[in-house]
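re: ur question from the group chat, yeah i did fold both. here u go
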Amino acid sequence: MTNTITEGKNRVLLYHLIAIVVVSIWGATLVNTKVVIQGGMRPDEVFLSRYIIAYLAMWTLSYKKLWSDNLKDELLMVACGLLGGSLYFIPENFAVQVGCVNDISFILCTSPLFTMFFAILFCKEKLTKSLAIGSLIALVGVSFIIFGGNSESSVVEDRILGDALALLSTACFGAYCLLLRPLSQKYGAAFLTRKMFFYGSLTSLPLFIITPWQFPLDHFLTDLPVTFNLLFLGLVASFFCFGAWSFVTEKVGAVKIANYNYLSPICTVIISAIFLGEKMTVEAAIGSVLILIGVFFANKK
């Protein structure tokens, strides 16, 4: 009996460790993206390459079912691919190009607030006291970051533009999470993610009609830093982490596991300091703490 209890505790501990590893990897992705952009790829090229890699890998888990059950669901899949894919990652990648990844990582933490606000506006959910207070605290934190954040970007205007693009990405992801709710009750996670990868890639293609692909394809074989970072973004951060996150969420519960998301920007700060040499100002640090407190408080029931 004792051995059974011990084994159970060890398994739970393993699930939590997996969650920490996944969040740490996600915290590194902004740095990986910046490295690839510095290697010569445009932000939209980084996104499309990452999503194609992830989509092809996702076929190994979800390949039997091709279409949704009806046209309405398929159109919702398109919207999810647009909001959670191209409209989320491409502005985020442009934000990484011109701004500070530390600022951006904490701004991205506010996506649950946007989801709740959209739910209030469109699904008639009630505004709770904790949500209102938490949102105000997080809003003050965002203001600290945007108007008093890291001054080491090339110019202040670039940093502010990067933060604004990060807010746009966050709002899109919040809307994506809301649209995903009814779909997740009807379809498996692997199928939904594969469809998002597909429609995210598809909805980014008009950008390449306006500005054709420029990164030389042969550089994928010769520029190893770009190649390895893209493989990391596509296979590890997207494909592997999705599977691992879904696994531990099922085992431990969505509410408990979701709290580990707050570690992601902290990991970004550490990794960006090591590989990019970015440092945080006092104002940005205060804003980051306020965002974490605000989002955590807003999620309290």
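okk and heres the other one u asked abt
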Amino acid sequence: MVVALQLPSSKIPILEIGRHLSNVSSSSSSRKRFVSNSHQPPQYPTLFSPINQSVAAIVFGDGSESRLYPLTKRRSEGAIPIAANYRLIDAVISNCINSNINRIYAITQFNSTSLNSHLSRAYNGIGLGKEGFVQVIAAYQTPEDQGWFQGTADAIRRCLWVLDEYPVTEFLVLPGHHLYKMDYQKLVEAHRSSQSDITIAALNCVREPDPGFGILKVDSQDRIVEFSLRLVKNSEKPNDSTHSTFSSMGIYLVNKKIMTELLDSYIPEANDFGTEVIPAAISAGMKVSAYRFDGYWEDLPSISAFYQANMECIQRSNMGYNSFSDKESPVYTMPRYLPPTTISDAVITDSIIGDGCILNRCKIKNTVVGMRTRIGDRVIIEDSVIMGSDFYQRDCIQKNGIGISIPIGIGDDTRIRKAVIDKNARIGRNVMIINKENVQEGNREDNGYIISSGIVVILQSAVIPDSTIL
């Protein structure tokens, strides 16, 4: 819903409070863009404290509806394992740390147990300095608000009393399940030098957007003049050579004062930040700018996109996300102190192997193998994502009381091709997970798997009996 506001004239000066923070002077020198080079750090207006003191990040780790089901059946999107040793949210938190933003609030709600545990254990002081933190704010109820968070804007509004703890000047609002590398310091620099109220990171191209992020119409000064939920085709609207269109990335840098005034005073009923707060700010005449980003970015809108992102991590090409092996901007995660992976006469090509695995006489090609994975003899795995296990489990279980012994891991003589195997799955012996009938879509949750875009997804903790053919 797009909200158009006609503000009383008495309110306008209050909105301008956030803008005056960056008005160092009216001279042209105070308005020029601050540029950094390899020999000189960025120079910010003297009114602002260093970024680690003046900017706080607000990270959302989940949503009520996920397009990555069944990987989100028991976890939020940000907690999904990727690239053997990591979780999706690690990429976003690491962007903050590498950008010298060390005050990070993670707001969680749906299926948040795994994510809350990971954040609390992974970022207990790592790379955050003496005053840095990653603080988890789980959904809560009060006598005044006895329901769940109704959206990103509602969640921020109800958490403002926590977010007001430190005297920061801007809030950086981030989705926690996207895969990209960005130096947020450059975003902050552009925001301050343009004296904007809100700055939105935008892809330097147009593609079909997430409905919650939308399309931005931008003028020659990078000011956003219109927000829409879908791309307007040429046949629907005449060409406009004075404006450009970009896809929003759902990343917002907002002046703290403006955030408070918008959510508390002007649109106190708004629930979603992208579809309600941004259009309202534009309608109110606030300066909403675009920051163009031309790097790799993937919002993982489907099982197919998640699968492809893992495959690109293996390739380590310029086409995909390559920060997992970037020493200059490392991706942080929880230290687990696992033993080295044990390999016994295995043939492994073009693959990533996580920590603490036990690989017997198997063949692995073009595959991501997650932590603590046990793979038996004569197993062949190709073009797949194996998420591993949360613990070592060599004991067997009984299925329906009929002595079928299947430990966690992948049993002898099994073959897997183009599949995603979720954590703690028990794959029996002589199993064929190859989508033999080339099914594109299928729901077999009762049998422990689904098929999405031709990719077989084995559910978390599923049991696949011996000699099964999928």
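fwiw on the second one: The first strand starts at residue 55 and ends at 60. The CA atoms of residues 267 and 277 lie 8 Å apart. idk if thats what u expected
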